[in-house]
Automatic annotation (TrEMBL):
CDD domains: AAT_I. It catalyses: O-phospho-L-serine + 2-oxoglutarate = 3-phosphooxypyruvate + L-glutamate. Its EC number is 2.6.1.52. NCBIfam families: PRK03080.1-2 (NF002841), serC_2 (TIGR01365). This is phosphoserine transaminase. Keywords: Amino-acid biosynthesis, Aminotransferase, Cytoplasm, Pyridoxal phosphate, Serine biosynthesis, Transferase. The keyword Amino-acid biosynthesis applies. One of its GO terms (biological process) is L-serine biosynthetic process. Belongs to the class-V pyridoxal-phosphate-dependent aminotransferase family. SerC subfamily. Its cofactor is pyridoxal 5'-phosphate. It comes from Brevirhabdus pacifica. One of its GO terms (molecular function) is L-serine-pyruvate transaminase activity. InterPro entries: Pser_aminoTfrase, Pser_aminoTfrase_methanosarc, PyrdxlP-dep_Trfase, PyrdxlP-dep_Trfase_major, PyrdxlP-dep_Trfase_small. Pathway: Amino-acid biosynthesis; L-serine biosynthesis; L-serine from 3-phospho-D-glycerate: step 2/3.
Length: 383
């Protein structure tokens, strides 16, 4: 039987996962055919590609010339933990979390590293008051909370004349949001997020003050080889020129370079930010027009433009978690929205990735399906 309540159009690309995220439009595997596969990453051709990945990142993100950019193992997690294990302990630390990834860094600091840490947490949907922190301590925080859809509105709370270091997990922000480099001493992200690259490699961006910390402080703890950024008290500069600590995937490097080329073709950082803004704007318009759904982020100034988290508010819903799961399942079943269920630790709802590789036309084609799935599930619940 034909269901005439179903929308006529479907998104061309139904991939709205918050990581790994949609590949850039027009991406094909064939475009990676010239990757230097089966060659050493230490051969001239490999080194050239790795250095290009670093310098293209610098150019597109507008990272200052005196900041180091390194490609490190183990995706964003590797980059964050490498910084925490290598730099923290010299002074007390402010640990900041408003969703599960930030909470993971709190666990690292408190339970694993056993640091002198003050923990600042906010519930899902809210943000910690960043003005209340002591920036003469080190501060570890997440720019965009991927699992709550709450982000830093800007870096104004971070003083220019701080004595501590700011360590910022920016994995679901970099390339889609403005990042104030002068306020960030350590910044990390993974290729798998806003540019739709592959996971497993992390980017570690260090300010001169972060380098100074590495060269002046040696923590009293064992560091595995893949965390070691210094040798004999000096920074291993090669890491920041593409001489990676261990073997990277040259296929993933080529894929990242392709994504960076695409980024340039849409107008660089400005264009990338505009695309995410337009996507999140389309979802915001939908939410404003429907009284059964709301943004999880309470303060509009903190609403993410990448990982947009939504909650159902209809009084007829009896079991919120089951309802949200069922809506996500319907969307997936129709092949119109994949991987849009809320993160496992987050409040029940949906999470729609609106990052720069997603086409606004796909968001717009998907939203009527959300309306359909919601109504179908309300009907199903009535029995
Ligand atoms: C804010 C944040 N931090 C860390 C991670 C972990 O990233 P990865 O799996 O690339 O290490 C994620 C992944 O979604 C994230 O959203």
């Amino acid at each position: 039987m034909l269901d005439d309540t179903k929308p006529a159009a479907r998104p061309a690309n139904p991939r709205f996962s918050s990581g790994p995220c949609a590949k850039p439009p027009a991406w094909t595997l064939d475009k990676l055919r010239d990757a230097p596969l089966g060659r050493s990453h230490r051969a001239a051709v490999g080194k050239e590609r790795l250095l290009k990945a670093i310098e293209d990142t610098r150019e597109i993100l507008g990272i200052p010339a005196d900041y180091r950019i390194g490609i490190v193992p183990a995706s964003d997690t590797g980059a964050v933990e490498m910084a925490m294990w290598s730099m923290l302990g010299q002074r007390p630390v402010e640990m900041v979390a408003w969703e599960s990834f930030g909470a993971g860094w709190v666990t690292d600091a408190v339970k694993q590293l056993k640091l002198d840490a003050r923990v600042h947490e906010a519930p899902y949907g809210q943000i910690v008051d960043m003005n209340a922190l002591d920036y003469d301590r080190d501060v570890v925080f997440t720019w965009n909370g991927t699992t709550s859809g709450v982000r830093m509105p800007d870096g104004q709370a971070i003083p220019a004349d701080r004595d501590g270091l700011t360590i910022c997990d920016a994995t679901s922000a970099a390339f889609a949001m403005d990042l104030p480099w002068d306020k960030l001493d350590v910044t990390t992200f993974s290729w798998q997020k806003v540019l739709g690259g592959e996971a497993a490699h992390g980017m570690l961006i260090l300010s001169p003050r972060a380098v100074e910390r590495l060269e002046s402080y040696t923590p009293d703890r064992p560091l595995p080889k893949i965390f070691r950024l210094t040798k004999g008290g000096k920074l291993i500069e090669g890491i920041f020129k593409g001489e990676t600590i261990n073997t990277p995937s040259m296929l993933c490097v080529e894929d990242y370079l392709l994504a960076l080329d695409w980024a340039r073709s849409v107008g660089g950082l400005k264009g990338l930010i505009a695309r995410a803004d337009a996507n999140a704007g389309a979802v915001a318009d939908f939410v404003a027009a429907h009284d059964w759904i709301e943004n999880l982020a309470e303060d509009p100034a903190t609403r993410s433009t990448t990982s947009v988290c939504l909650k159902f508010t209809d009084a007829r819903i009896t079991d919120g978690a089951a309802f949200a799961k069922a809506v996500a399942k319907r969307l997936e079943g129709e092949g119109v929205a994949l991987d849009v269920g809320a993160y496992r630790d987050a409040p029940a709802g949906l999470r729609i990735w609106c990052g720069s590789t997603v086409e606004t036309s796909d968001i717009q084609a998907m939203l009527p399906w959300l309306d359909w799935a919601f109504n179908a599930e309300i009907d199903a619940q009535r029995g």
